[in-house]
Predict the structure.
Amino acid sequence: MTDGGPTLLEPGGTNAVGQMLGLLGDEWSLLILGHSSRGLTRYGEFREVMPISNSVLTHRLTRLTEHGLLERRIYRTNPLRAEYLPTARSRTLWPMMLAIWEWERSWTGPAGEALPLRRHEACGAEFAPLLTCRACGVPVEARDVRAAWGPSGGWERSVPASSTRRRPDSVPNSLQYPQTLEIFGNRWSSALIGAAFRGMVRFSQFETALGAPPTLIAERLRSFCALGVLETRQHAHHPGRPEYHLTDKGRAFFPITALSVQWAQKWFVSPEGPALVQTHTACGHDFVAHLACDQCRQPLVTGSITIVPVIEDRTTPEGTP
């Protein structure tokens, strides 16, 4: 599949959210798409910047091509060489990628603080992306949005089967955006964070909704608590039964989930209707996520953002180690 329209889904099958989790809920695919957005196109280029095996890279490139996020184009026939170009489908992931950059920069300590800043060319200021409602322009947080399953919704249709398996140590922590990969770069993790935003707090709720093995749910909950996106609280009436609540850091992940769901429902269309219906409670309109510059409040558009070069600290006297 190359640049084209949305994928029409089969009635009763995996919905747009499930399709998105199956594609983006994989750490290697996210890394490939991130490098693709920065201009990498060739197999050797991906291998150079990622500690990935040939078989895994080939599989992921093939899968992303089959689902319309990359276009394979032959640029040499003898020997045969191909490059993988971004499509309209992958290029429209830039708001989600920008939200990932902001969350990592704000919430992951020294590693995030070391990320380069970005400048909004329209106002000339270094900025942070601000999640807003397109209908009324007001900044939005997770608590401001009411979500309900749509005609093609439901947990069973939103958690996909997957042909990829994730090993806990498969992506080194030295890579860019490691905490996002822990939360979103795995189909069960991304489904679990979505369930937390839907108000689930008890182990039994996560287990019933997601249909994942209890040991996997327990491992993911421990990981999320270690990352600081969830915290345990004791049940009010059952002290021995912990609940898992989003922290400020976890709630700040909402723009990433909102933008990924929005991307999914643009490119994977069910004849029954949307999988998830979201309403901005302040204005009553359907919530359409939109990023604005926090300095000038103007909408952010592709091409209006540049990376601010990192300037070496030159305050150390010459000759001092």
